[in-house]
Design a protein that fits this description.
Blueprint (H helix, E strand, L loop, with lengths): L1 E7 L4 H5 L13 H13 L5 E6 L3 H14 L6 E2 L16 H4 L3 H8 L14 H9 L2 H7 L4 E6 L1 H12 L3 H7 L7 E7 L3 E9 L5
Parallel strand pairs: 1-4, 2-3, 2-4
Antiparallel strand pairs: 1-5, 5-6
Helix pairs in contact: 2-3, 6-8
Length: 206
């Protein structure tokens, strides 16, 4: 059995400022997030990981470095471009309030299946789901009986795991996105059937 431990990056400056932060925009972790990443690492310190996979954005890379150091994990993190956050195009880095009254924003948040980001240079949800699912099988094939740590983003983790659970793209956000520095677990036996025994765990942060 392969177990994927998905850790969302810590809260960032852009999260605090309510800016859209996707595949292109990046901002530093808050000081609280440094503590939280270390607590996540301590929580995971008894898990024998075979590999660490990380989105190439700095907020995930720093979260991974902090968590791995706290957990005593000496593996070199492998960057996975397909696990970048959703690509919001030219809206990346923009304050949410600046675009909240646009019909595209309403579709983006409330009606994902109808979202057309062509004019923004953004990806569609269909493209996003296809992209974030792409690394699963290769990672499983490399670790058919091991544990892997994946440090990624709110939409990546939430839409990947929830669509695997059977939710439609329109149902994922109303069900709630994973919290900063939360841990969710995805298991597979044989690389076909996937289950989610742990969802959005933040108990270790208290």
């Amino acid at each position: 059995m392969t177990k994927f431990y998905f850790l969302r990056h810590g809260r960032t400056v852009y999260n605090e400022e309510l800016r859209i932060q996707g595949a292109r925009a990046d901002s530093p972790l808050l000081e609280q997030s440094v503590r939280d990443a270390r607590l996540a690492g301590k929580y995971l310190q008894d898990v024998p990981f075979e590999a660490v996979y990380v989105s190439p954005l700095e907020r995930t890379q720093r979260t991974a470095r902090l968590a791995c150091a706290a957990a005593g994990i000496t593996l070199q993190p492998q960057l996975v471009d397909d696990w970048r956050e959703f690509d919001f195009g030219k809206w990346d880095g923009v304050l949410e309030d600046e675009v909240a009254d646009r019909p595209e924003f309403d579709a983006l948040v409330n009606h994902p299946s109808r979202f057309d980001g062509t004019a923004l240079g953004a990806e569609s949800y269909a493209q996003f789901i296809e992209r974030i699912k792409r690394p699963l099988r290769p990672v499983y094939q490399q670790h058919p009986n091991g544990n892997v740590l994946v440090v990624a983003h709110a939409m990546v983790i939430s839409y990947l795991l929830q669509t695997i659970r059977g939710l439609s793209v329109d149902e994922v956000r109303p069900a709630g996105l994973v919290a900063n520095t939360s841990i969710s677990v995805l298991e597979t036996q044989g690389g076909r059937l996937y289950t989610v025994p742990v969802w959005n765990n933040t108990e270790f942060l208290k």
